[in-house]
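Working notes for the structural subgroup meeting. M.R. asked for a predicted model of this chain before we commit to crystallization trials. I am recording the input and output together here so anyone reviewing the notebook later can reproduce the run.

Input as submitted:
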Amino acid sequence: MVWPVRDDTGRPLVLKVSPPVAWTRAEPLALPAYASAADPEQPTGRIVSALAVDVADRVMLLPRLDHTRNLEEHPDIDAAVGIIGEILTSIRHLRPVAEVPLLADHLDGLEPHLTTDPQLDPATVDRARQRLAELRAELADDQQLRLLHGDCHFLNVLRSAAPDPPAWVCIDPGPLVGLIEWELLPLLRNRWADAVATGNPDRALRRRVEQVCEMTGGDAELAIAGAQVQAAAALAGWRLPSDHIHRPPYALISAW
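Returned structure, recorded in token form:
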């Protein structure tokens, strides 16, 4: 839950309080690390910084952003992807933070969903299971592990309310410790209409992968593997209805 508040100088802020469930525990732990990655010389894209955090009660005092402006509405999809690329680049060197969930454990939770399913052909499932094993092998190298945002997509990036310096700020992290390439699925499944409008949505989504990996230094093939595993697990495990907003992009990506 988020409330608009002001401090004793009248400065507009927001107070965020998260329920005591497993998936909210890591956000207050990770926020200070994200703040340490902010580059004052390049403020265009970054992750939100907390003014105060109570880790035990999961209470965070955050700057108030412009809720009327997000990257979902940005008129230039390439520019919007580039801003997300800048945000992910800003954290690509962040080392793991204690008690933040591990991507390796998350993969253990995905694996049971990768079973024969009427929504997926057996070859797609087999490919996902093979790639999941490849991802596990990459995670065995501790030097590659980074603190991730976990949900960096267009609707989660808001414009700073302050005009100077102008900035796009990514909110609502679901922190994980893993590979920077894992971050891409959220920006692939959103703004699907823009991909369709190109006449070749497959090519359009692959272009997003290439654009972000070029900026972050990530491995495009590993990013494709991670996205395909997540999409296949979502279709097989979540039983998405035919009219679900993410079903078309998941169907395409699961075939990669």
